[in-house]
Write a structure and sequence with these properties.
There is one protein chain. The chain has two domains: 209 residues, D-amino Acid Aminotransferase, Chain A, domain 1 (2-Layer Sandwich), CATH 3.30.470; 173 residues, D-amino Acid Aminotransferase, subunit A, domain 2 (D-amino Acid Aminotransferase, Chain A, domain 2, Alpha-Beta Barrel). 25% of the residues lie in helices and 25% in strands. α5 crosses α6 and α9 packs across α11. The two termini are 33 Å apart.
Amino acid sequence: MAPTALAPFQATSELTHSGIKHILTKTTPSVIANGNSTPSINELDASKLVFTRNLSPHAVPEPDSPEVWTQSKCSDHMVTCQWTSTGGWAAPHLQPYGPLQLMPTASVLHYATECFEGLKFYRGHDLKLRLFRPTRNTQRMLNSATRISLPAFDPDELQKLIETLVAVDGEKWLPKSRPGTFLYLRPTMIATAAALGVQKPKEALLYIMACCFPSFDTPGGTAGPSGNVRQQSSKARPGLKLLASKEDTVRAWPGGFGYAKVGANYGPSLIAQGEAKARGFDQVLWLLGEDCDVTEAGASNFFVVWRTGEGKLQLVTAPLDDKIILDGVTRRSVLELARERLGGELEIIERKYTMSEVENAAEEGRLLEAFATGTAFFIASVGSIHFRGKDLRIPMSEGVTGKYAAILKTHLANIMYGREDHEWGVVVNERQVDA
């Protein structure tokens, strides 16, 4: 394994650090030994995959149809793999998409022992299927799983399973007649042992599904099919409309698990997000502490472009140091591309910054744009932020987006959809699977 597989070690407290190392050593020793040991238990092994074709396939919905907007329509197959503390990982299965079977006492239903990933696969304009930087997602899922005591795995094996699902369902669900489209992939792991008790999971299930998703990165993209009031109003004021959180609401905190993609990070935020939507906003802009440090926008990373008082042009986003925000794949890609392709005109900064700095920049005409990044939202420009009773209007020099959001979005889309040959775009060869 590459050294990046050891990323879970770089966690929070000494106690957590030690516990994660123990999980890795016990459940997937090859990750620790860089593949130079003979595992004493069964590790995740994509080569053992068992195929069962779906004999009752579903129809593929039209892009952006009401059915797609339900975000519940999945492709014909899914991948599943069982794990136990005594036997390790069983053989994975590619099988028809359908319900899971859980006992009411399953750990995941009581103790939030669940983690997941979100990535997309794309039908390129060259008609090839691609994943975008899947190694980043599989490494991050290893981080998340071990943070909540779920079993470890070789990230490369998880990627192979993801690629198999894409190869099998890609031809039908992203037909070559629809270049420039995508499906959303959701690898998930849950603890399934049928016993109550606050303890490390003894059984787990890994599963991977592909879901039809709408595009959220267009003006009014959170609105849904045409006719929605928010979508109509967004034509007059494009971009996301954010509500800054107050001091009495906290999404994540130093020393916690905000950096891990676990269900416990999302459930508690839904009530605030729902109330924000009821008040006409798209997302909550999460602030932290008395200084109102800017962290994330909903479940997305957040960027601003401003000029400093000295006239420097900067792209600024919150740092990863305190483990408060997610190490987003789109976030990382934006930063790397900006340094590579825009470094001559933009200073790229990862640091703590406050909402007061954003407010001052807006009032002084130094705030040039803001945008959110993530797998679902891709790069979505922000049109306004409501902070302490005041609406901050965010400029959009390109009409529906800011200049740098548009540039970065174009660069990334070109890689994702095959207009640019790049190592981040991983081509998957579609194939048929025998029953």
